[in-house]
Design a protein that fits this description.
Shape: globular
Radius of gyration: 11 Å
Strand content: under 5%
Order of helices and strands: HHHHH
Structural class: mainly alpha
Number of strands: 0
Oligomer: single chain
Largest sheet: none
């Protein structure tokens, strides 16, 4: 459940930035297909990739944590 909430928060942050998966993938140096699998929970989201996503999407870690708490 936590994994789904984190992925939903990441997807929402991408939508808010009006970024396509391909644009995020390029910034992460991964393929769009691989990024899509991560966002859809079909591939593991590593801590390293999560840290990169937070930077790319300009997500405040505390905002992400608070969102997770709110949705719990």
């Amino acid at each position: 459940m936590l994994k789904i909430i984190v992925l939903d928060a990441i997807r929402l942050a991408r939508f808010k930035k009006r970024l396509k998966q391909e644009e995020v993938a390029v910034k992460l140096n991964v393929t769009q297909g691989y990024y899509s699998k991560i966002e859809n929970g079909q591939s593991e989201l590593t801590l390293s990739l999560l840290e990169q996503l937070v930077d790319v999407l300009e997500i405040d870690c505390m905002d992400l944590i608070n969102e997770l708490r709110r949705l719990r």
